[in-house]
């Protein structure tokens, strides 16, 4: 019998969300058991293919979660800096949890059957 949200502690609930977020993020959305979309802001989309490849790799391999940047332990946001071709970039990524129609927040974010993720990658200045 599956545990309902009412029977889970906040830490257990956040750990489930973190595991799902990690599967979605590390596979760049290719794990279809955790449905969602990847969105690049215009500022990121306009970068060179080489810069976007670095960003994709850095988002997928991000593991520097701390109490400061991940206070709930759900792995919904990250940030990093990198340089390429003499340019420096400060990049944020965040995951939002929507209902199946992408209209509002999911009423049960731990249930992948009713939740869709949107991973947005943006310049820190666009936040």
TrEMBL record:
InterPro entries: DUF3768. It holds the Pfam family DUF3768. This is DUF3768 domain-containing protein. It comes from Planktotalea frisia.
